[in-house]
Design a protein that fits this description.
- There is one protein chain.
- With 61 residues, the protein is α+β, with helices and mostly antiparallel strands.
- It has one domain: Macrophage Migration Inhibitory Factor.
- Helix content is 31%, strand content 30%.
- It has one helix and four strands; from the N terminus they run E-H-E-E-E.
- It is elongated, with a radius of gyration of 14 Å.
- GO terms for molecular function: isomerase activity.
- This is 4-oxalocrotonate tautomerase.
């Protein structure tokens, strides 16, 4: 059972997450040959003020 953990800065829509999860699931099935039902995708939304890139808070960009 593949468990795929995706961390994103908050702000993505439900539809975007569904589309991404669908693409990840399809790629996993195609590449490693597991049944579609076995693929689990978990999203974690990171608050923009708790995530830094290059020493700058994402919320301050």
């Amino acid at each position: 059972m593949p468990m795929i953990h995706v961390e994103l800065v908050e702000g993505r829509t439900k539809e975007q997450k569904k589309e991404l999860a669908s693409a990840i699931t399809k790629a996993t099935v195609d590449i490693i040959g597991v049944p579609v039902e076995a693929v689990k995708v978990m999203f974690v939304d990171l608050k923009a003020d708790e995530f830094m890139e290059g020493g700058v808070l994402r919320s301050e960009r």
